[in-house]
Request: fold
Amino acid sequence: MITKALIIFILTYILLLVLPKYRAYIALASAAVFVVAGILPINEVLSSVDWNVILMIAGTMGVVCFFIESRMPSRLADIIIEKVPDVKWAIIALSLFASLISAFVDNVVTVLMVAPVAITISKKLNMSPVKSIIAIAISSNLQGAATLVGDTTSILLGGYANMDFLDFFFFKGRIGMFWVVQLSAIVASLILLYVFRKDSQPIHAEERTEVTDYFPSYLLWGTILLLIMASFIPETIKLGSTVINKPSAINGLICIGLFIIGLIRELILKKDFSVIKNAFKEIDFFTLLLLTGLFVVIAGITEAGVVAEISNIFISIAKDNVFIIYSILVWASVLFSAFIDNIPYVATMLPVVEGIGAILGIDPTILYFGLLSGATLGGNLTPIGASANITGLGILRKEGYEVSSKEFMKISVPFTLAAVITGYILIWLIWA
Reply:
């Protein structure tokens, strides 16, 4: 079973990397193969899809459609162009802007919010938006490990280790992941400056675009605030003898809800049902289908025991040397997350990490943070390693730009290695 699942998985990812135009169909076909081959029971297919992520992306895409129509991205683009001297610094400014937002909002939502600004700047300057969108996506992934609400992997760790929002800033009397990520971001941004050193075309400010409607901007800020607030809601609430469970898709429901509010408002203002058609045309169903297929594929290899088997192998190699265990955990997580979704990987590895700590009689915090750092940043290596990357490339595809794996990795690999090495050293120095 493990061998069969591993072969299907490897073939799937080779095809995904080689044939970017057909990624959604490849992922869905591979998902079907896992079911037909008896690796994943058909009754587990729907439950293996992270509907929270799917709904969140779909809802935010809808809100972003109204945001673009309001001309606010054009206004923000004008402001950025006014403040920076050339194209290189415009890209860096956008990546830092995305990085800041992503520390408090899901990475995918961040990409969907900031990408329209990058696209608008590119159109104003008559240049390709590819480098900007890639920088935004990988910067968003980097900050996902900074706070409890930055990424699903952080939420998983927080729940498993009983960490709250402030524990990511200071934990057990030492600085937490937030500050480690910020130092990693500084080093990685310097790498981006070097990578984009030749993009020195000067840019000039024009007259600022007039925003026609501020309501979509309020919807986006409402998305940020509600997602942060939702992270503080406990998983279960007791009202007398009644126990209310927090909806697993609460973030997705928030985003879809705000999209519906925006849609209803547009219908009332324009009194034209073509508004609905136009809004749904802006939702990138290709990306949604790709993610859906990948969720099923990852569930298949998890069900077959591939993830657990690989984890057990590299843990047995390390014996009882904490530094070796930590090093293997970080770099294996980087490698695995470059090709598989980091959410099921982190969910699988958290109990393994706790078990290692119990066997060795050590505080597992250093291993928890090493796992989070490696798994969150590793997704940046490849175009399909993280949902934010897939979303960014989906946006570029809609604009008519097909990005090859080689083109993506020219930027992502040096950025990721710089960030991971910085975090790897800092976490060890702080928590060893």
